[in-house]
User: Fold Pilus assembly protein PilN from SAR86 cluster bacterium.
Amino acid sequence: MAQINLLPWREQLREEKKRGFISTLIGGVIIAAGLVFLVHQQVQQKIDLQDSRNEYLLSQIQQLDVQLTEISDLQKKKNEIRDRMNVISDLQGVRPGIVRIFDELVRTLPEGVYYTNLTREGSQLSLIGVAQSYSKLTQLLRRLESSNWFSEADLSNAVAWENAGINENDVNAFSIDLNLVFGELLQEAGE
Assistant:
């Protein structure tokens, strides 16, 4: 007799194929998840490595910035010292000129005239003093004008004082403004 198989073999075959497919699918998902995890770990490791490099570079940049500010501070100090040295050397060169100006003021001063105040602003010199007479004051102005160290002597004020305690009848207080020929060097040295 012929055997008839009444078992649902097609359903079993379908179930076996379905189980095989599901197990293959689960295996594929597990492998894919594993690959994704490995790739993620690799990428994260590279990101961490790059972050550590960036932090190192930032720390080095900060150190270089500090060094740059130190260098610029040192450069400023160097320039300040150089400027001071220039001023000192200018003053050393001008010092004999200042002495010469005071010497010239004494040489041009006639007898019977004296200074009470002397001020200098740049190349401008202001003299305040007392003269026994107008003729002495005129003589002083002529001597100042003829000097090689002074120019443009200008009598800005002359006042007669009566009975100032000197034997002469009147004493003349005066104020003279004049320019120093040597004034440019003095002004540069004073700055």
